[in-house]
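Tokens as discussed.
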């Protein structure tokens, strides 16, 4: 159950492990959660179904799914006809920016969340980015979150008129995947509802070999917890 009411918060809910944990954190901290999922043309569209399941389980105030066609731009293995890398070593995952990076994805998502927050009169936006187990994405760094918060308070009517100051929360940004999972367990998050894989089969079963699956499996192993989802053999 939520603690003392803090007001409305927009939570970017992808359907993955991190965003489910962030939504649960926001709710536990007393916010009325308005979940926002972005249908950006991702090939692993099963995550949108997972987002809907998580939203129901967490009893959010509202769950919006907004289509934005980033696939029309291409340039990523998640939106274009580019093979998703599998079986990469930890050293390989720690080097460079992978082809699964989607150009401007978090910037676009946060911008839409910003607009939604202003319409709701919400002062808080939550996003589940992580700068520890994050596969090298530049828009998952603390510097990016800080810069976007500054932008948000320059770009909106509500902030310019001094009616509210917007805050962008990234509570998992310095946590390992194992710590995130342990935090989620304490909050009662059902990780069996989530979807992480970048290359699931037609039934939505996770591949177990892409970077996202490997980081997830490593996190559960280090947390000493059994991952409740199925993987391809």
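Sequence:
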């Amino acid at each position: 159950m939520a603690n003392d009411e803090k007001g409305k918060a927009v939570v970017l809910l992808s359907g993955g492990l991190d965003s489910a944990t962030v939504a649960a954190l926001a709710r536990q901290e007393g916010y009325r959660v308005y979940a926002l999922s972005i249908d950006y043309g991702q090939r692993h569209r099963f995550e949108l179904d997972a987002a809907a399941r998580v939203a129901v389980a967490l009893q959010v105030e509202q769950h919006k799914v907004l289509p934005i066609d980033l696939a029309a731009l291409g340039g990523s293995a998640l939106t274009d006809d580019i093979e998703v890398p599998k079986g990469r070593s930890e050293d390989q995952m720690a080097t460079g920016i992978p082809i699964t990076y989607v150009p401007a994805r978090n910037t676009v998502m946060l911008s839409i969340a910003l607009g939604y927050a202003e319409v709701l009169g919400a002062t808080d936006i939550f996003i589940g980015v992580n700068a520890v187990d994050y596969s090298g994405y530049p828009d998952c760094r603390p510097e990016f979150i800080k810069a976007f918060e500054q932008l948000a308070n320059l770009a909106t009517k509500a902030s310019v008129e001094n009616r509210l100051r917007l805050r962008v929360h990234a509570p998992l940004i310095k946590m390992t995947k194992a710590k995130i999972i342990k935090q989620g367990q304490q909050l009662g998050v059902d990780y069996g509802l989530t979807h992480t894989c970048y290359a699931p089969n037609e039934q939505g079963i996770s591949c177990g070999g892409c970077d996202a699956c490997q980081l997830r499996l490593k996190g559960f192993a280090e947390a000493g917890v059994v991952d409740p989802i199925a993987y391809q053999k």
